[in-house]
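Hello Y.,

Per our agreement to keep a running log of every chain we model this quarter, I'm adding this entry. I've kept the format consistent with earlier entries: sequence first, then predicted structure.
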Amino acid sequence: MKKRIFFSLFALSLLTAGWATTGPGLQIGDTAPDFRLKNVDGKMVSLADFKGVKGYIVIFTCNHCPFSVAYEDRIIELQATYGPQGYPVIAINPNDPSVQPEDSFAAMTTRAREKRFNFPYLMDEGQKVFPQYGATRTPHVFLLDKDRVVRYIGAIDDNFSDAASVQEPFVANAIRALQKGETPDPALTKATGCTIKVRKG
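Predicted structure for the entry above:
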């Protein structure tokens, strides 16, 4: 029953909002561009602000998407586990709020407070960052090393609907590989989620 409701909400989200159109974006081995975006606390945040890190977990996510909501606690856990190890989570909302009002900056601040987000939650105002990265879904992960080289792209894990049933924690495994000086395998998975909402015309 829960799964039927979940997929109904997902189908509705696709029918009521625009579809994203992006270029190819970043590939494994590319150097990711920095950005300067507004956090829910009103401060501007860039990757350069994080000193002495070993990498970055950049996650394009949002408020309204059922997939993003399902992953919120796992994103919080990623920050709690790997942030102190030098891999901070930086979450970015790529959606245009004129298309999806639930993803407005005000709604972001409310959601971050309600869920006690322990990571920056940034607004991609003008939708300039997500096309550079090539994000197409929410959530969509780009794991970077300390030099901002892309080492993993894709899903957080292999089971969005049930955290207890996850068999492959892709992001966690990729970080562990980097910590050992190894190449993440897989380095690329398919992101599962809602399409990024852009204004038509």
